[in-house]
Amino acid sequence: KVPLDAYLMDFVFSEREDGGIYDNRNGMDYHVPVIGGVAREPPMHIVHIAVEMAPIAK
């Protein structure tokens, strides 16, 4: 049964409980939307964007 406040399942893969190969998608984890709950994912508020530009060769 899906909890009513669920909107996203966040998980990683592991070969064994006590170690082994661990896949967390380079720290970003895996995410799957959950259907059946009444909650909605809160909006993401972007507060800062950084851009690095390469110097122009002369």
From TrEMBL:
Give its E.C. classification number.
2.4.1.21
- Catalytic reaction list: [(1->4)-alpha-D-glucosyl](n) + ADP-alpha-D-glucose = [(1->4)-alpha-D-glucosyl](n+1) + ADP + H(+)
State the source organism's domain of life.
Eukaryota
**Which GO molecular function entries does the Swiss-Prot or TrEMBL record give?**
alpha-1,4-glucan glucosyltransferase (ADP-glucose donor) activity
Question: What is the protein name stated in its UniProt record?
Answer: starch synthase
Read off the lineage from the record: Eukaryota, Viridiplantae, Streptophyta, Embryophyta, Tracheophyta
